[in-house]
Amino acid sequence: MDRIENAQMNSQGTRKLYYENVHQTDFTAVVMECVPDKEEGYYRIVLDASAFFPEEGGQSADKGTLNGQEVLDVSIKQGILYHKMTCELPAGTEVTGHVDWNRRFDFMQQHSGEHMISGLLHSHFGLENVGFHLSDREVTLDMNGEVSLEQLRLIEQEANAYVWKNLPVNISWPSSEELLSLNYRSKLALTENVRIVEIPGVDLCACCAPHVDTTGQIGLIKIVNVQSHRGGVRINILCGGRALADYTEKQDSVWAISSLLSAKQPEVADAVVRVKEDARQQKERANALQAELLKVQMNALPSPEETCHVLLFVGELDAIALRNAVNSLTEKYSGYCGIFAGDDANGYRFIVGSSSCNCQELATRMRQEFQAKGGGSAPMIQGNVGATAEALRKMWETL
């Protein structure tokens, strides 16, 4: 029995044309049912046959049109495909369908690449794929154990070596008896109508989704991220066109950074480290100078006999230095002692303290008059405000 007959025999409900010919994008079919969803304002169209792969097995549905109208989504229930649309297609109507091939092939590249990575992780380290997600934006696979970055790079190299060998991707529908002799990967315990995807020497897995004909059609497999996830790891991959687009985007960034730093491309990381270190040292020097200036400003303030409330405006200064300065002022002045760091254009970070006044009352007033944000306690408050220095000085004069 050939592949098409197997597919037809194992299909139930809607005839699934994507199992008969994964490359078929245009088809005609008859509407069997058109169910309105009054709450959502959509129609769910059932056809006698469809080339649209539904959302299933962690993969998003195909996109395309029926009679030129957009198919918003495709779902499956008990073997029946439901095409979500905004227009009504009455039962008995013959329709023309079109599947977006670029999206279909992109998903085929990603899914086949995922099988290769998952299969190799299983054969080398005994890891099981316990979660898979494929959408327009990302491809993730969740493994039930830890794997190091070095191990993943070896897996990536091996997977791409198999890509370049252009191995066949075989599809079969084994009988229940034949399944008993197969050591295949599956998240669920399956006994009948099982579709097996085989990449010789790489992976054997139960899967419902369309795949490439040969591994060479994947083009390239790239692991782009890995992180701990529920006792194992979540791996992000990109394959084929997505991998090329990602490389192009990152290459453009490297070119731009290389030009900005006047560094050769392989040396941009070291150049960034040097720039960061220079910036850190410059910031330390600026903070030291600002702290010295703050001391001069504090010494120039009126004496405690002349005023009990004091206010200072400074440039950017770290929070510890601001807090220490305010604490020093509260030992000398009995009223509100405030320091505002920043400028009128970008706003100010502030710390206000007092040894005898309730700073929370001042915080309330600043919120009411200037929409200031922040908080604290009676002895000290801190936050941000977008008022001008002149407006803040006028308020201080009324304290």
TrEMBL record:
<dbReference type="InterPro" id="IPR018165">
    <property type="entry name" value="Ala-tRNA-synth_IIc_core"/>
</dbReference>
<dbReference type="GO" id="GO:0006419">
    <property type="term" value="P:alanyl-tRNA aminoacylation"/>
</dbReference>
<dbReference type="GO" id="GO:0046872">
    <property type="term" value="F:metal ion binding"/>
</dbReference>
<dbReference type="GO" id="GO:0003676">
    <property type="term" value="F:nucleic acid binding"/>
</dbReference>
<dbReference type="InterPro" id="IPR018164">
    <property type="entry name" value="Ala-tRNA-synth_IIc_N"/>
</dbReference>
<dbReference type="GO" id="GO:0005524">
    <property type="term" value="F:ATP binding"/>
</dbReference>
<dbReference type="InterPro" id="IPR012947">
    <property type="entry name" value="tRNA_SAD"/>
</dbReference>
<dbReference type="GO" id="GO:0005737">
    <property type="term" value="C:cytoplasm"/>
</dbReference>
<dbReference type="Pfam" id="PF01411">
    <property type="entry name" value="tRNA-synt_2c"/>
</dbReference>
<dbReference type="InterPro" id="IPR009000">
    <property type="entry name" value="Transl_B-barrel_sf"/>
</dbReference>
<keyword id="KW-0862">Zinc</keyword>
<dbReference type="InterPro" id="IPR051335">
    <property type="entry name" value="Alanyl-tRNA_Editing_Enzymes"/>
</dbReference>
<protein>
    <submittedName>
        <fullName>Alanyl-tRNA editing protein</fullName>
    </submittedName>
</protein>
<dbReference type="Pfam" id="PF07973">
    <property type="entry name" value="tRNA_SAD"/>
</dbReference>
<dbReference type="GO" id="GO:0004813">
    <property type="term" value="F:alanine-tRNA ligase activity"/>
</dbReference>
<keyword id="KW-0175">Coiled coil</keyword>
<dbReference type="InterPro" id="IPR018163">
    <property type="entry name" value="Thr/Ala-tRNA-synth_IIc_edit"/>
</dbReference>
<feature type="domain" description="Alanyl-transfer RNA synthetases family profile">
    <location>
        <begin position="1"/>
        <end position="250"/>
    </location>
</feature>
<dbReference type="GO" id="GO:0002161">
    <property type="term" value="F:aminoacyl-tRNA deacylase activity"/>
</dbReference>
<feature type="coiled-coil region">
    <location>
        <begin position="272"/>
        <end position="299"/>
    </location>
</feature>
<keyword id="KW-0479">Metal-binding</keyword>
